[in-house]
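Sorry, can you check?
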Amino acid sequence: MTAAGTDTDLVNRVRALRPLVRDHALRAEQERRVTPEVAAALTDAGIHRMNVPRRYGGHQSRLGTQVDAVAEIASACGSTAFKTVIQAGCSYIAALFPDEAQDEIFTNPDAKVGGTLVPDATALRLDGGYLVNGTSGFATGCHDADWHLLTVRVQSESGEGPPELLWTAVPMAELEILDDWYVSGLAGTGSDSVVARDVFVPAHRVLPVGPLLAGEIGSKTNADDPFYRMPVLLLFCVWTAPNALGLARSALAEFTERSRRRGITYTLHQRQNEATVTHLLAAEAAMKISCAELLTADFVALIESRAQSGEPYTPEERARIRAQSGYVARLCKEAVDLLGSAAGASSLHRDVPIQRAVRDLHALSLHAFVNPATNLEIYGRVLSGVDPGTPFL
């Protein structure tokens, strides 16, 4: 059995790849996508099987394993970790599609599935399926993906009321990729836009978004599996948190190592690690990271326990999990900003990882589902007894 064929020691296999991922981080940023060498190595390690059903050769990895694996990748390259997060999440969503669609998607258990929830494309109902057209941005990992979950709007036949939102599973070979991913953070994720031009999607490769958010899935085989009872939106909180944690941990480790080799220019300090200000900064950053780790462990444990018990979430619990994930991003960003501001001008060189961690965490915090301010507002609204202002909980 190959390494990818078992979930055992997945984290250790990924950890062993950290030097390779780190060595390719600058190249990934320059080429604006994860390098083929790194993508192949992570596939061989089994990273894409974490959320694939076992009947197809997948792992259905426990959430703690997924958090640890993504954090290991992020400690070497934030872009590679974010690509992993999106493809892991979209594989989970693919497992909620009708079983006939899964039989197509998971022909290969290492299949890479991408997707977005922003409904920029449209679909027209036809006999037996839908005709899809439109452009969808932020298609992370699209260059090496096998499938893309394209969110589309379908106007009602009467033309009245809001459009229906559908996830449509489309082979990447049927989509065009635009070269438009030129950004300052998470630059190596390959998040170009994809375009559908009169793409026909059969009805069995469609998953309505509204019912999904309410807990209804298309798969009959996975319907009673506790693993696939976990709410998708809360799982994205789980998947994005270790991206922030890994970046922050690696920044602290690098800062500590650099402080032993460099002084503080225009002062008498020959070694930065001898200065009191360094001690305060390092301790403050470490405490922020520790708090972020505790918050992550808290909501991961709650989600796993509810999957087993089947007990429903309260609106306050759902809003709190989303707020906690945003706060994890904020704490990690604050920690890395502290370290980056004290790393000296030499850290501005593009081959120094700490400056990339600063930019990557800034980019991660801008993601609409991760943004700390937005998530705190939603939680505060629920605590105040008013409507959360979003169905995405």
Notes: The chain has a mean pLDDT of 94. The chain has three domains: 3-105, 113-208, 230-383.
